[in-house]
Amino acid sequence: MRATAVRRTALVAAAASMTLLATACSGSDSDAKGDGGTSGGKDDTASKPAAVKALTSAELEKASLEQGDVTGHKVSKTGPEDIAQPGDVTVDKKECEPIGFAFYGVKRGTPAGNAGRKVVQEPKKDESADPEDLLAGMLDMTSSLVTLASYEGDGAAKSIAELRDSAAKCTGGFTLSMKGSKQKVTKLTEEKVTGGEEALAWRVQMGEGDEVAPFKLVSLRQGGTVATFFSFNLGKTGADADFEQPTAVIDAQVKKLGG
Fold first, then answer.
1. pTM value > 0.85
2. What's the per-residue H, E or C state across 133-177?
3. Across the strands, what pairs with 190?
4. What is the pLDDT of residues 104-155, one digit of tens each?
5. Beta-bridge partner residues of 115
6. What gap in Å lies between CA 204 and CA 29, rounded to an integer?
7. Rg (Cα) of the chain, in Å, rounded?
8. Cys-Cys link to 99, which of 42, 87, 166, 239 (CB 3.0-4.6 A)?
């Protein structure tokens, strides 16, 4: 892998999530069934759940991923520095706020409980590989910010519907600022995803010119809880680059939520 490609990937990833980048580089552990995002082929009315009791933050902590739940991944709790507050993130288009907020775990609506995890894929190691391939293998790992939010009644279904509507209006891109650091989202492409009672997914292209990289956003509902996964891969850069959704992480989290 060329040094310029590595540098560009790191720059884009850092702009999107400084904390996750640091975790991925160090490897530290310190710290819907959908059809193109259409809620499993069900219409919005059919997909709305009956009134449910929201889980508390303490209950969500018990339902969150822990070390050992996902083979080949390191799991750690998020801290105050990992989850952005509403005032930390601004979006140039009001209609794009829900999707932009989802990248950083910003609270949307009035959740009764919240929890978060950082999940980092362990790097691939092949001692017999040449230095360039060895470096590429070490960078080819996916890191995810996983956030859980629980809502009373139909709040979770409304949160998913809001996110779907926001993404549909913002496929052409928008600009967001995280504590003053601007990042350009140039394209949103809907993807298929399974898990939970409703699930949405997108490939998110960030950056401009030579400094472009893909990210993945998945949000799903299980009962009254919304689980959101924002992921990037340090080894992937460029407008044509892509990587797989963190399905093992998603499946493990849905299982712990009772799905």
1. no
2. HHHHHHHCCEEEEEEEEECCCCHHHHHHHHHHHHHHHCCCCEEEE
3. 202
4. 999 999 999 999 999 999 987 666 666 665 565 668 899 999 999 999 999 9
5. 148
6. 26
7. 18
8. 166
